[in-house]
Amino acid sequence: MRAWSLGLLALGMVVLACTPEPAPDPIRVRNKVTQKQTPRPAPPRPQPPPSRQTLAAPAPVPAPAPWERAWYPRGCRISSRWTTIVVHHSATSTGSAAVFDRSHRARGWDELGYHFVIGNGTTTPDGFVEVGNRWTKQKHGAHCKTPNNYYNDHGIGICLVGDFTSGRPTRAQMESLAKLVRFLCRECRISPSQVVGHSQVTQRTACPGCLSIAWVQRQAALPATASVVP
Ligand SMILES: [Zn+2]
Questions:
Q1: Could you state, in order of their start, the residue ranges of all structural domains in the chain?
Q2: Environment class of residue 80 by beta-carbon count within 10 Å: exposed (0-12), middle (13-18) or buried (19+)?
Q3: Are 88 and 108 in contact (CB under 8 A)?
Q4: What is the distance in A from the centroid of ligand 1 to the CA of 179?
Q5: What is the pLDDT of residues 89-113, one digit of tens each?
Q6: Which pTM value belongs to this model?
Q7: How many whole angstroms from 68 Cα to the centroid of ligand 1?
Q8: pLDDT of 30 above 80
Q9: Ligand 1 centre and the CA of 92: distance in Å?
Q10: What is the second-level CATH architecture of the domain 81-220?
């Protein structure tokens, strides 16, 4: 009996050892193969910074016209204080920045009240633009007194030599005035509509006589190199 049981046990072990493994599930196998064949996604590579060419191009800043270079203040930036431009005549037949500087000091002012003076060919060349010390220092003006002093604090004073209640500005003066207001409106971000005549601000003066402020405003809206047609 014992030998018979041992024989049965041995036979069972043989049968178990010879039983084939169940066939592999074809779907699982296919998935396994697929997983093996699918390449792992590559880790994200650090992207180089966008080149200058791919960035939005800023609005082009026009290069200063050759005649404008002398009008930048030396040694300091243009102040953000300027919001308006006041145009004057000198009410004299001759004159210059130096002449008006002496007369203004004689009246008790600290120095020439204007920021720019445009000659008429008498004391300085016709149409020549003189830069006053106030502009060099970006200092408030002393050319257009009002109760709150707004036009002196925030207005750039331009004086054309001449008396335009009886005469007219020269063509060269008007050309220089047009170029100067274009420069100032662009650099100081002043709207051309904010170019005014002295008499528009204080009705107590005839300054600047027959000089057309509407024409100056139209000129102020044009590019620096636009032709000037008085
Ligand atoms: Zn004036």
A1: 81-220
A2: exposed
A3: no
A4: 20
A5: 999 999 999 999 999 999 999 999 9
A6: 0.74
A7: 24
A8: no
A9: 11
A10: 3-Layer(aba) Sandwich (3.40)
